[in-house]
Amino acid sequence: MNPLALKVSASRTVPPRWTALLFGSLIAVSPLPAGTSPLSAQALKAPGQASAERASEAKEAFERLKAFHGSWVGKSTRGWEEAITFKTIAQGSVVHESSFDAHPNETMATMYYLDGDRLLLTHYCVSQTQPRLRAETFEEGGRKVTFVFLDGGNLESRDKGHMDKVVIRFIDDDHFTAQWTWYQNGKERWLEEVRYERSASRSAAPPK
Prior knowledge:
By secondary structure, the protein is mainly β. The chain has a single domain (47-198), classed as Lipocalin (Beta Barrel), CATH 2.40.128. The protein has one helix spanning 47-66, and strands spanning 18-22, 25-28, 70-76, 81-89, 94-100, 107-115, 118-124, 130-139, 144-153, 162-172, 175-184, 187-198. The strands form two sheets. A ten-stranded antiparallel β-barrel has the order 3-4-5-6-7-8-9-10-11-12.
C-alpha cells in the first residue's frame, strides 16, 4: 500500500485540504476559521517600508503645522477662549506655539519638531511640567494626528499630573481642533475640545 495513502473512516470528517508534497511528506493546511480576515496590508509591509511611510507621514504633519504660522483664536466646548500664535524658528526646524489665557493671564508654549522619522512635541504647562509626546497615529489622510506620552521634564513619575495625549485635527487652512488628556495617579481623562480659527489679519508667510 502506498504509505501516503489516506485512510478516512466513515466516522471522521475529511481532514483539511492537502495542498503540497514536500520531501515525501504531505503538508496539511487548515482553512482560516470563520470570520478570520487575512493579514492587513500594513502588517505585511517590510520594516523599511513601514519606517519610510511613517517618516513621510511625520514630515507631512510637520509641514501642516508650519502652515499654521500666524495668529489664532481658540474656543473650547466649555466656553473659555484663548489667543495663540504659531511661528517657525531655528531655520525651519521647530514650530513654536504660544498660548495665552487658556488659564487666566497665563502663557504656555508647545514646541513641535522632527526627530529622525518621528514627530515630537514638548508642552510647557502651567502645571510646571514639560511632557514630551510623539505622534503615534496618522489618520484620515494625515488630517488627524494623535500624540501620546513619551517622557517629560519635572515628572518624577508618570503619576504626577500632566498633559498626556493630544489629538489634532486639521480641518482646512483656517480651522483646526485640539483635544488633550490629563493623566494623574494612573487615571487619564479627556479635557474639553478646543476649536481654533485663524485671525482675520494673516501674518507674513512662514519662513521655509
